[in-house]
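Hi support team,

I submitted a single chain yesterday and got back a structure, but I'm not sure I'm reading the token output correctly. Could someone confirm the output below corresponds to the sequence I sent? I've pasted both exactly as they appear in my results page.

Thanks,
R.
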Amino acid sequence: MKKLKNHIEEMLADYNDINDNTRMQLELINQTLAELQTKKKSEEKSCRRIGFIQHEE
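Hi R., thanks for writing in. Yes, this is the structure output for that exact sequence:
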């Protein structure tokens, strides 16, 4: 029983480590996407002329 208990505890610790790593990676991906979205919005705003109507052909 003691051996089984130790094995289960090791498996749960490994599982938690994987979850923590995955959570950190997803957090970094979300932060990067948010930064890119903000950067894209600011670039779009700076390209528009005020007072002019642009017609697409």
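A quick pointer for reading it: Residues 2-47 form the longest helix (46 residues). Let us know if anything else looks off.

Best,
Support desk
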